[in-house]
Amino acid sequence: MGTMMRETDPVDTEIDLGDSDYEDPEDRSEEPELLWKADLGYEEDEQETLSPLVDVSDTKPLLSERDPRGINDCLKVNFEDVIAEPVSVRSGDRVWIWSNALFEVAKVWIYRIVTALFAVPVSLITGLLFAMLSFLHIWFLSPCIRYSLTVTYWLQSLWGVILDIGIRPFLTSTARCFGGIHLRLTHE
């Protein structure tokens, strides 16, 4: 009717999961990297680009910095931190190099395999536990504490009066008595 859609090339889809460490220096551009970029088959303006579904600038910090608070700094263990040979007792150079390589490869790949098997169930269980903890804190613990503070407000007031009348004058007079004492240390 008033507007006509122009036919263009078929759907062009580019997916970047961002888990490879290889980066071609020629592929760098001024635009932010996109996790999903889709051309839906029509062009409105050649200068105007379609907005991405997900912008990698939001997810890149999650992928690159996975321990931003340093919770697991104790796990930054290298081969030299675990196995160290003194000068007096040494194995062959090839044994040392292969041991180092096997340690690093085993550490990385066993972690990846165990993570692939157990990360999702453990995160599900952890999420459930924190959800239950949050539920108990928000709907049970906080109201109980608020209720007890409301009910015992008279006790708090009475305790404040006892401190003001009975204990504060005694401590104030003691402080004034000892406040006049000055010590001078001399070295003979």
UniProtKB/TrEMBL annotation:
Its membrane topology: Peripheral membrane protein
TM spans (from-to): 116-141, 153-171
Domain of life: Eukaryota
Any single GO CC term annotated in Swiss-Prot or TrEMBL for this entry: caveola
Subcellular location field: Cell membrane; Golgi apparatus membrane; Membrane, Caveola
Region (Disordered): 1-31
GO-annotated molecular function: molecular adaptor activity
Chief location bin: membrane
Keywords: Cell membrane, Golgi apparatus, Membrane, Transmembrane, Transmembrane helix
Biased composition (Acidic residues): 10-31
Family recorded in the similarity comment: Belongs to the caveolin family.
Functional description taken from the UniProt entry: May act as a scaffolding protein within caveolar membranes. Interacts directly with G-protein alpha subunits and can functionally regulate their activity.
Name of the protein in question: Caveolin
Organism per entry: Esox lucius (Northern pike)
